[in-house]
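Private note to self, pasted from the team thread so I don't lose it. Backbone tokens:
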């Protein structure tokens, strides 16, 4: 979708989760957080 950066899969404050951490986890937000955290960690480790 064109407004994908505003959705709750990436951010807790998106329209679907509305700052509700439990709802954000039910939407699958924790998986994208873990994946992005791992990807940035891998990039940082490779660039060290």
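Design output:
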């Amino acid at each position: 979708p064109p407004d994908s950066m505003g959705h709750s899969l990436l951010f807790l404050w998106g329209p679907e989760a509305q700052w509700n951490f439990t709802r954000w986890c039910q939407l699958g937000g924790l998986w994208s957080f873990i994946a992005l955290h791992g990807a940035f960690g891998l990039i940082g480790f490779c660039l060290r």
